[in-house]
Amino acid sequence: MSFPVIAGDVGGTNSRFRLIGPDGAALGETLTLKNAAYPSIIEALTAAYPADVIRAAQTLVIAVACPVDEPPFHLTNAPWVIDPAAVKAALGLSQVHVMNDFMAQGLACASLPLDTMQQIGGHPREEAAPRVVVGPGTGLGVAQLIRACGKWIVIPGEGGHLDLGPRTEREFALWPHLEMRGCRLEVEMAVSGQGLENLYRGLRRLDRHPDREEAVSAAQVTERAHSGEALAVEAVTLFTTILARFCGDLALLTLAHGGVYLAGGMTAHLIDLVRGPAFRQAFEDKPPFSGIMAEIPLYLMPGGTPALDGIAAYAADPQAFEVERAIHVTR
């Protein structure tokens, strides 16, 4: 691909863009835009960069929060529809590469130095062993990484849409009060921004709170928890407990001795709970495999924009990864 490249991380709420050079280094600052302020990614890009910068770049590589199969791509938790051919034509680009957002997080997991991450328990990682990346934000993203033939194979999926069941007596009482998709409760409906809102609303319904149907955002729930409101504290605690259990489920899936890596905006907002001993305890609570779980390390991905770092690593050395089938390229 030609350089410079415009790299983009297009989430459900925000889009982040960065110009990168042939060595993967950033050319200028990362720009963050609110999706709701623009009708489409075309307007967002033209707001982010002057026309001469876009013409000079010629190549756009974006990670999007939805499955990447056949275009156009419909964001799962936002109204944008991304048609690579229309973007290419409107902006005068020579090529547009589109990958799933957790493909980009997986690329970051494979390429970022270990010392940029914070380990939470477990043994040192086995460098060639399977890895898992999990990230709650507007939605819940998941990717697996497998090392084969000297390359990292990144397998993005839709693990956030797996079914979620209760474990404790309180959870069994709570489940009927939670919003579901169809006839089932997905993990994302508890472990994401909308998931935290769902848990808090459900707890207020369960306890017959007089304002139980009041719309309360995830940010407000977090603020109320920090101020000591009991139900908000319970919602945030349950959120992190379910996240830890889910990470443990995914670790068991591949015996991820290469580590489970936590990304996503919600993780950053609740970082003190994620670092606490209860999180690790819930992660390991998988009898009869608790001994194996105690060995598997958890890592906090670095703050900032790891997805853009992953895109930069791919752009600088695409041959280091086996990802061609998972990236849609329009030329």
Q: How many individual domains?
A: 2
CATH architectural type of the largest domain: 3-Layer(aba) Sandwich
Radius of gyration: 20 Å
Assign the structural class, choosing from mainly alpha, mainly beta, alpha/beta, alpha+beta, or little secondary structure.
Answer: alpha/beta
Helix tally equals 13
Counting DSSP E segments of at least 2 residues, the number of strands comes to: 14
CATH topology of the largest domain: Hexokinase, domain 1
User: Can you tell me the residue ranges where pLDDT is under 50 for at least 5 consecutive residues?
Assistant: none
State the distance separating the first and last CA atoms. 10 Å
Please provide a brief summary of the model.
By secondary structure, this protein is of the alpha/beta class. It has helices spanning 41-48, 51-57, 84-91, 101-111, 169-174, 193-206, 218-226, 230-254, 265-269, 271-275, 277-284, 290-295, 306-316; strands at residues 5-10, 14-20, 31-34, 59-64, 73-74, 81-82, 95-100, 118-120, 131-136, 140-148, 151-157, 260-262, 298-300, 328-330. It folds into two domains: 5-101 and 308-330, Nucleotidyltransferase, domain 5 (2-Layer Sandwich); 113-301, 3-Layer(aba) Sandwich (Hexokinase, domain 1).
Question: Any chance you could write out the topology, listing elements then pairs?
Answer:
Blueprint: E1 5-10, E2 14-20, E3 31-34, H1 41-48, H2 51-57, E4 59-64, E5 73-74, E6 81-82, H3 84-91, E7 95-100, H4 101-111, E8 118-120, E9 131-136, E10 140-148, E11 151-157, H5 169-174, H6 193-206, H7 218-226, H8 230-254, E12 260-262, H9 265-269, H10 271-275, H11 277-284, H12 290-295, E13 298-300, H13 306-316, E14 328-330
Parallel strand pairs: 1-4, 4-7, 9-12, 12-13
Antiparallel strand pairs: 1-2, 2-3, 5-6, 7-14, 8-13, 9-10, 10-11
Helix pairs in contact: 4-13, 6-8, 7-8, 8-11
Pfam families: Glucokinase (PF02685)
GO molecular function: ATP binding; D-glucose binding; glucokinase activity
Protein name: Glucokinase
